[in-house]
Amino acid sequence: MNAGVMEKGRGVWPDVIRKEFDANQFNWRVGTRLLSETDRVRVWEIRLAPGERIGFHRHVLDYFWTAVTPGRARSHAEDGTIVEAIYSTGETRHFAYGKGEHKIHDLENIGDADLWFTTVEFLDSANAPLELANEANDEAFSE
To answer: Measured between alpha carbons, how far is 84 from 30 in angstroms, rounded to an integer?
Structure first.
């Protein structure tokens, strides 16, 4: 991943982004679709068309993501950092959180092709998993 910090500080975020952060900082949906869940893992898909964005969400579990397609994205992080990154197919990153630690961010596809990731969360992490609601948009369980 080739990434660069564009700006730092929520003051430079557009109003709509700041308001969405305040409203959704406890959002547990770390993907656009939950593909599978066992007693050990949750497997998520993130698929974003050019210009599409997954809103702010909170990571509390150890996890990894793999880029299924190459692309470019912009992310706003809880500390106010704005990062733009270029992803390669197959690129994978791992994250671990200690008790009480978390990460909040969004992700916007700023490229000209679909951007697709698979994310796997480990339910036996230092933090308890957030409860999943039985929502209609978890299509994978009804297909």
So the answer is: 19
Question: Which DSSP category does 139 fall into?
Answer: G
Q: How far apart are CA 9 and CA 140, in angstroms?
A: 37
What domains can be seen in the chain, in order of their start residue? Answer: 2-125 (2.60.120.10)
The answer to whether the beta carbons of residues 67 and 117 sit under 8 Å apart is yes
Q: What is the pLDDT along the chain (143 residues), one digit of tens a residue?
A: 777 666 677 778 889 999 999 999 999 999 999 999 999 999 999 999 999 999 999 999 999 999 999 999 999 999 999 999 999 999 999 999 999 999 999 999 999 999 999 999 999 999 999 887 655 445 444 34
Place of tokens 């961010």: 105
Write the DSSP assignment of 18-70 as a string of letters.
Answer: HHHHHHHTT----SSEEEEE-SSEEEEEEEE-TT-EEEEEEE-S-EEEEESS-
Tokens of 88: 């390669």
C-alpha to C-alpha distance for 111 and 49, rounded to whole angstroms: 9
